[in-house]
Amino acid sequence: MSAQTHDKLAELGPLRLGKDTAGRVSILSLGAGALGLILTVGAMLSEELRDQALHSYLVAFLFVATLAVGSLFFVMLQHLVGAVWSVTVRRVAEIAASTLPLLALLFVPIAFQVGHLYPWAGHAAHEPLVEAKAGYLNTPFFLVRAVLYLLLWGGLGWFYYSRSVQLDASGDPLLLLRLRRLSAPAILLWAIAVTFAGFDWIMSLAPEWYSTIFGVYVFAGTMTSTLSMLVLMAVLLARQGLLREAITTEHYHDLGKLMFGFVVFWTYIAYSQFMLIWYSNIPEETRWFADRWVGSWASLSVLLIFLQFVIPFFGLLSRNAKRSPVILPVMAGILLVGHLVDLHWLVMPQLHRHGVSLHWLDVTALVGTCGLFVGVVARRMSQVPLLPVQDPFLPASLEFENA
Amino acid sequence: MSSASLSKDRPPRHIYGMVAEFASPHALLEGVRAVRKAGFTRIDTHTPFPIHGMDKAMGLPPSKLPWLVFAGGLTGAVSAFLLQWWTNAVDYQFLVGGKPVFSYQAYVPVCFELTVLLSAFCAVLGLLALCGLPRPYHPLFLHPRFARATDDGFFLSVEAADPLWDEAVLRRVLTAAGGSEIAIIREAPEGGVHV
Q1: Is the ipTM of this complex over 0.90?
Q2: Is residue B47 one of the residues assigned to a domain?
Q3: Are residues B114 and B144 both part of a single domain?
């Protein structure tokens, strides 16, 4: 580390979350999370609550999984393109992605209940259209695929996190080069895994229905929510007096640009999926959207358009909004809620066919998965520096300014 | 500088302003700050590439272009929607694929395309208009060294229309700020330039 860089880092103040704060947050989150998970998984054993518990759990699992998996994509993307501006934001994303090996365990309850959650493994297994897909939609192959996705994400998440922490000690630029070389093939595999996980875990809830663009739709929602989470994490850290001089208005501005871009992307993909199905008007395709236009589901569909498109699009359109310490986090919060509503909208109509029906298990499941995620992230934030302190591009990132 | 090329019986040409050269982007930034500090406002810089921080140093207000583009986009979306609604649902009702005559779901692609098209038109034409382009003639072009503004020259110009315009003071400020090759630029003579 050059003397100059050393001075600059010293000016940034503490680089780790305080042990007290981290301990408090993680004990609280892990405690609440454990309680939520016990209640939700326990409910899966009851005949009466099982279906509700499984669907609620799937939504909650997907919410946290997409945030961690999206963070992994963010990290790999920055390596792939050799981005300089994002170096100060990267460690936060690395920590979020480092939870992936643990989050993989959260898939276990689903793996044991495939027959109850997915109609193709249960009551709809002998429908002609479903039987024709049995070569792909069968429980053993489903589980093998799930293990492959989770191994890939868990392995990459841990690899990118642990190597980056290694770089803090060694400062070996070759290490950075290796991460960069891996990023191109890794992103390719990542994209295939996200596409097929979207097919397997969400789309196959309606086994007669299919949409080839569905994986891209899942990717788009993953990115709007991940970027929003990164913005909110940075804001929360700044409130603790951390990274204030490291993640500046300039970095928020760039995160805002990406958020805005993915909002437009989500809208484009969501509409493309809807438009083709609406236009061709084939019953087994339109049924899926018709299910989401029944009773109060129609209101939720409209709400989704506002949360994921109308409000964030106009809210983030202006340069001033992206640089605002108020508007940007508010939009990030809206997009995060929007992503949760999106997942609920994707999963729940398969269970509650006549309208939106919230259940206490929706809350316990969400508290369970989010609690685990937040608890682990908070702990790690006190263990490793919140900046890749030896990254050769860190000084340039600290000084980054939008033209 | 060009007085030698003028014969004595021609009328005197109006002074457009004064121009100075700086050695580097950084020197130019410092020059701009010094000239602004001295109170001059009608200044401009001419460089081969955009210089980081120059907008701020020159005190340029935020561009109005985003508003033009927004207006263009809004016009595109609204006019595309009205066009489709009027033609399909009102003026010449025509059933397509058993859908209702007013099928707004199908209007989105055209609305999107026209939004993009008019936004792009407004961005390009608005940029030209706000920059005062196209502009085949500018007094600075008469300065023999000015061509280097597209190569390796960093120029700072102050217009004679500046309320504080004073040749001697300005020359002193520019010299003190590190400017060289300071020259007075005159408008082209009546009847155009004869090279």
Answers
A1: no
A2: yes
A3: no
CB of B96 within 8 Å of any CB in chain A?
A: no
Q: Are B40 and B164 in contact (CB under 8 A)?
A: yes
Closest to A275 (Cβ–Cβ): which among B66, B99, B105? B105
What is the nearest CA distance from A5 to chain B, expressed in angstroms? 22
Residues B71 and B58 both lie in one domain? no
Host domain of residue A248? 17-398
Domain assignment of residue B172, yes or no = no
Amino acid at A81: V
Tens place of pLDDT for every residue, chain B, 195 residues? 444 444 455 556 788 889 999 989 989 999 999 889 888 889 999 999 988 888 888 988 888 999 999 999 999 999 999 999 999 999 999 888 889 999 999 999 999 999 999 999 999 999 999 988 898 888 888 888 888 888 889 999 998 888 888 888 888 888 888 888 888 888 877 666 554
Which among A275, A317, A319 is the nearest to B108, CB-wise? A275
How many angstroms separate the CA atoms of A261 and A313, rounded? Answer: 9
The residue type of A143 is L
Pick from B50, B97, B99: CB nearest A403: B50
Closest Cα in chain B to A281: B97
Nearest to B53 by CA among A398, A255, A399, A402: A402
Host domain of residue B79: 65-130
Domain count, chain B: 2
Q: Which residues pair with B21 in a beta bridge?
A: B155, B180
